[in-house]
């Protein structure tokens, strides 16, 4: 009688559905709440397939090379490396942005800042001049450029490495000719330009220095410290912004900044006390948390 034993190396091929299920279980067991989503994004990255294509191709077998590639990046995720840094991509405003450990990963909450900026932009019937301070990946500046094709946008960052990523994203989204990327700390590079703006946007560092180590390891271990550290009370950059931002605004112009959820009253007070500021307001994000402070130039009252 012939031996019916199947050699181990001839085992049934690993299929998309099986690999996804196993990967998700391992991530969830490690305490990664987004385990199912991360497993799909990682496998999609290896196979160059969307999440929808993975569903359609659930029975498709993986080659040994594909499985090994997936296993390799799954181990990186299990070591708390963010999925966005592994794949080099993060979605923002329904667009894909390149990200590296040189830039903060764009968050959905920051889309609230873009929404408010677009509402404010409707107040002007002229081509806008916009400044994005601490642009990082360029997500805010590039999104605004896409939504406001006649706007001229300046985007600054102290990090040269971050500006490389931002320029790459601007080229990828076809708005490179609309944005001036400048290296410098906050308004440093703009002083040399001598321009004033209808809108100034910023998502500055606002994590309290003593709390950075308490953040999830995906943040504390992997994201750039310079994009997180807002000083002892998290307000260092807001003090600097509030002190001079009005000098760079055109009449009726506005500055909008993202904030930590418990910083609304403090940040609003900083801008409300600033010279030439007429009023400062707080807006919430999609979960009802304080997320954006907006301050307008005093010329609003004069008109």
Quick rundown:
By secondary structure, the protein is α/β, with parallel strands linked by helices.
Describe this structure in words.
This protein is an alpha/beta fold and 303 residues long. It is elongated and about 70 Å long. Residues 1-10 have low confidence and may be disordered. It has 2 domains: 8-79, Helicase, Ruva Protein, domain 3 (Orthogonal Bundle); 91-302, Rossmann fold, CATH 3.40.50. The protein contains 13 helices and 9 strands. β4, α8 and β5 form a beta-alpha-beta unit. It has helices spanning 16-29, 35-47, 51-56, 64-78, 83-87, 111-121, 139-147, 160-172, 188-193, 217-220, 236-244, 264-272, 299-302, and strands spanning 89-92, 95-98, 129-133, 152-157, 179-183, 197-202, 249-258, 277-284, 290-297.
């Amino acid at each position: 009688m012939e031996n019916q034993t199947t050699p181990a190396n001839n085992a049934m091929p690993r299929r998309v559905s099986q690999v996804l299920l196993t990967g998700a279980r391992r991530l969830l067991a490690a305490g990664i709440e987004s385990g199912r989503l991360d497993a799909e994004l990682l496998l999609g990255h290896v196979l160059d397939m969307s999440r929808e294509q993975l569903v359609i191709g659930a029975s498709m077998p993986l080659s040994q090379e594909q499985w090994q590639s997936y296993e390799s990046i799954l181990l990186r995720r299990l070591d708390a490396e963010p999925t966005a840094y592994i794949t080099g991509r993060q979605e923002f405003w329904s667009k894909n942005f390149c990200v590296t450990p040189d830039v903060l990963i764009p968050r959905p909450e920051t889309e609230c800042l873009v929404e408010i900026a677009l509402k404010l932009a409707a107040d002007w019937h002229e081509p806008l001049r916009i400044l994005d301070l601490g642009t990082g990946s360029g997500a805010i500046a590039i999104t605004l450029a896409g939504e406001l094709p006649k706007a001229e946008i300046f985007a600054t960052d102290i990090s040269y490495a971050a500006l490389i990523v931002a320029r790459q994203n601007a080229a990828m989204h076809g708005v490179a000719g609309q944005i001036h990327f400048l290296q410098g700390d906050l308004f440093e590079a703009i002083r040399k330009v001598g321009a004033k703006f209808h809108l100034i946007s910023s998502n500055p560092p606002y994590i309290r220095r003593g709390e950075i180590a308490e953040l999830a390891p995906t943040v504390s271990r992997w994201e750039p410290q310079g994009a997180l550290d807002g000083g002892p009370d998290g307000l260092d950059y807001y003090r600097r912004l509030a002190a001079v931002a009005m000098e760079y605004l055109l009449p009726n112009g506005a500055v909008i900044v993202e904030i930590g959820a418990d910083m609304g009253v403090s940040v609003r007070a900083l801008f409300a006390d600033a010279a030439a500021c007429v009023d400062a307001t707080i807006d919430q994000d999609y979960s009802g948390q304080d997320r954006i402070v907006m301050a307008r130039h005093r010329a609003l009252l004069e008109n």
